[in-house]
Amino acid sequence: MTGGRKYFVYDVFTENRLAGNPLAVVVDAKGLSTAQMQVIAREFNLSETSFVLPPASPKHKARVRIFTPDYEMPFAGHPTVGTAIALTEMAQGNDLAGIFVLEENIGLVRCAVNKVGDSLFAEFDLPKLPEPMPLAASTDAVAAALGLAPHEIGFENHRVSLWSAGVPYITVPVADTKVAARIRFDNEAWFTFSPRKNDSAVASAYVYCRETVGHENAFHARMIVPGSPSYEDPATGSAAAAFAGAIMEFDRPTDGAQRFWIEQGIEMGRPSRIRLELEISGGKLASARIGGHAVRVAEGVLLV
Asked: Residue 254 has what DSSP assignment?
């Protein structure tokens, strides 16, 4: 292809380069097949790569498809934040804000981008609110899959549960950050109770506690994806979206706007911060938003 396709690499859910969650954004994916996008995502070998295409509606900013190295995602948080910031920088520069809609597989995703501090901050409305899913898993089984003792699972009234806001996660409360740091994930043990599809576990582990490293944060989290091999993700917007269900279920926040900062990736040396905002009316979740910073760390041309 003459001239190639421009791409950027962003670190997302952080204001610092070489922290947060890296994302490749191919900003001109028109003409690429699904198979080509999958191979390109595998070539980048990051947790996700987003591909920007012309929107189906002229009212929207872009069509965005999101791939892991192995499969396409219906929705993901850090690709949405990183892609929204990339498109804003390309169109307007760092000094102007933008409000627009991205077309993702899950549906329409409304985004807002603003300059906050020295970097851009993007937030998006959840296209789907979290819903509980059935889970038959004992505390002993979950503890064994994480290499922990049963008494280390749970705090206050928080218990293991399964939620999805487009992507399912088993949310696992643990006693404190010391317990979170000792997790040793066992794929085979996790597969015994996780929902399965095509002989693979489809729900990742989202382990959280109320104790935090940063005093301004409300929760400390780790997210581990089962597989061969399993891997840890440094910042997961779709997991924070699902986690909103657990917050509503166990903490019962009061009506109005509630804001929580979630720290993640600290054990990996890739600290990140995700902002979760809830709008609560009549004791129920009316809407929610995920937000975070992103900074560009690399750019280049894809000769495909």
From this structure: P
Residue 1, pLDDT > 60, answer no
User: Which residue's structure tokens are 């560009």?
Assistant: 296
What are the C-alpha distances in Å from 209 to residues 139, 248, 271, 275?
16, 15, 16, 16
Active-site residue (options: 15, 43, 48, 267): 48
Close Cβ partners of 104 (under 8 Å, ≥ 6 residues apart): 64, 65, 66, 74, 75, 80, 127
E strands of 31-106, at which residues? Answer: 49-53, 62-67, 72-73, 98-104
End-to-end CA distance of the chain: 6
Whole-Å CA distances, 265 to 33, 222, 234, 243: 33, 7, 4, 16
Instruction: Tell me the β-bridge partners of 49.
Output: 24, 67
DSSP per residue, 197-233: ETTEE--EEEEEES--SSTT-SEEEEEEE-SSS-EEE
Residues 297, 18: contact at Cβ < 8 Å? yes
Centre a 10 Å sphere on the Cβ of residue 298 and count the other Cβ atoms it contains.
12
168-197 mean pLDDT: 96
48 is catalytic: yes
Q: What's the pLDDT score for residue 296? A: 97
Alpha-carbon torsion, ordered 263, 233, 114, 101, to 10 deg = -130
Beta bridge partners of 206: 171, 223
Answer whether 0.90 is exceeded by the pTM: yes
